[in-house]
């Protein structure tokens, strides 16, 4: 960044977007989000009110970090998911717009809401806490094996005023007995690790997000193979499980579901790519 004359907010955003285009597919958006964070305002305020003001000094540092592949959410410490703000750290997966598909599907299945929600691998808590926010009468459990991630989820539950209805618990579905005493749920959501181990990911993902939240063996299906056979025992009568998948995993995950006694269906995200498998007991 130019250290010379002070730039206006608009100039600084334009310059930053040019620089970030070398390493980011969302350069202009990144620059705007970082500027809004630097100014402590929302992105819409930025466009309407602040374009003539001088850019704050801290913006240049943020842009440098982003240019060096740090995710925007790690610089701002926050990511919106389904319109709610979630705190994120390098201990948690950054919530993805793709995962909002699971929230839409859950609302379609339970138009009047569901009572008990389980989120397996809750990370920031985004799936569980969004459901509890949308369904004021629901209660839920978020299972997470990473202690620092549990701390983030708990913090998000508090910040969203949902702590009284959200039980964030330790658990690892690869270990015997992890689900003892959990009870049964009307809705189970999970965005498990599903990336092929060794896959060529963007540096911002590979170097900054937790490998344990991403990778699941040579074909990316290891967690589904362990998790899905355990789901029937966790579903209440009339209950439904919805798991996120990679866009080429629909058939394979549906087959695992069918072997476990489910009638599976594959669902697409807004981009029209397979993104979720719904599992209803047969
Ligand atoms: N449930 C969290 C999310 O959807 C975390 C998922 C994960 O860590 N694999 O973002």
Helices, strands, pairings?
Layout: H1 9-20, H2 27-39, H3 43-49, H4 58-67, H5 72-76, E1 78-81, E2 84-87, H6 100-109, E3 116-120, H7 126-134, E4 139-143, H8 147-159, E5 166-169, E6 185-190, H9 203-206, H10 211-214, H11 222-227, E7 235-244, H12 250-259, E8 262-268, E9 274-281
Binding site for S-adenosyl-L-methionine: 121-125, 144, 173, 191
GO molecular function, one term: peptide chain release factor N(5)-glutamine methyltransferase activity
Family: Belongs to the protein N5-glutamine methyltransferase family. PrmC subfamily.
CATH architecture of the largest domain: 3-Layer(aba) Sandwich
Shape: globular
CATH level-four homologous superfamily name of the largest domain = Vaccinia Virus protein VP39
Number of continuous helical runs? 12
Biggest sheet strand line-up:
5-4-3-6-7-9-8
Major beta-sheet overview: 7 strands, mixed
Beta-strand percentage?
Answer: 15-25%
Runs with pLDDT <50, length 5+? none
Using the CA coordinates, give the radius of gyration: 20 Å
The count of strands amounts to: 9
The computed structural class is alpha/beta
Overall domain count: 2
Could you spell the SSE succession in H and E letters? HHHHHEEHEHEHEEHHHEHEE
